[in-house]
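Structure ticket #2291
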Amino acid sequence: MKTANRMIALAMASVLGVALVQSDWNVHAAQSAKKEELSESYRGSQKDNVQFQKVPPIKLFDNLYYVGPGFVSVWLISTPQGAILIDSAEEPYVDHVIDSIKKSGFALADIKYILLSHGHLDHFGGLTRLQQLSGARVAALEEDWALMERAGKQPGRNNSPPPPIPKRDMVVKEGDTLTLGGATLKFYKHPGHTAGSLSAEFTVFDNGRPYKAFMFGGPGPRGGVAGATQFLETTKRIAEIPGIQVHVQVHSWLASYPYPNGGIFERAQKLAQRKPGDPNPFVDEAAWKEWVKIAQAGAAEYLAEQKQKGAP
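Resolution: structure written out below.
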C-alpha cells in the first residue's frame, strides 16, 4: 500500500513538474513574443505571411512615400516632373508595390527612374516588370549590375528558375547626380554589403520645410574579411557626411544593427498620431548618429570574427 501511494505521489509530482516547466515555457514564449517590435515582425515571425506583409502605403514627407511590403523597402520620391523609385521588392509582392504606387496617387508612367540600392533578389526581383510596365530608366553601380547578371545565369531559390534580370541601362558611379523636377540625388558607392551598394543623398520636405535625407544602400557587412573590411571603411565614410536628418532605410528592421528609437513602422504609427506643430518622427538626426556608431562597432566585431574563422 505504501509502495502504491509512493508511486502515485511520484507520478503526481512528475505531472506537476512537467506542468510547471510547460508553464515556464509558455510565459517565456509570451515574453519573447511581446519583445518583437512591429517592424521586427516583418523580418521575424511574420516574414512568410504574405497577407501580413502587404502594408498600406505611407506618406512620410511631402515628396517621399513608402510603397513596399513590410520586410523590404520600396521608396517613391515625387517631383513635379515625375517620380523616382528606389528598389522594387520581389515576387509575390510586385503587384502590391504597383497597387501602393497607385494608391499614393501616381501612375506607373509617372516613374521616370528606378534606382537599385544593391543587387540582392529581395531588392531587384521586381525590377524587370516595373521597368517594362513604366518605361523607367534603371540605375545601379557597375558591380551590382554584374551581380544581378550573374544571378540571372544561376538557379534561383530552392532550385527554381533563374530570376528575371532587368535590362542593363544606367551605370552610375560615386559622385554622380540625378536631377528630376528640381530634385537632385547625389550618389555614393558604399561597398561591404555588396561590392556595388549604392547610397543616395537628397532633400525631403515636411510641410514645405527641407530636411537632408540619406538612403544607405548596404545596411550590414557580408562576404568574409574582404566585405567586412569594406563595410568598416564605409561606416567611417558615412560618419563624415554632415547633417543627415532622415535615414531612408532599405529594410523596416535592420536585423544586424537595429535602428535606435524604432524602425519604419514604429515611426509611422507616431506619424499617424502627430498633431499640428509636432515634429515629424522620421526626422531624427540623433538616432542616425547613434546608429552609425552601432554599425561601426558591429563592423569591427564582425571583421574580427571573420579573421578568427580564417574567412577569405
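Closing remark: The two ends are 70 Å apart (CA to CA).
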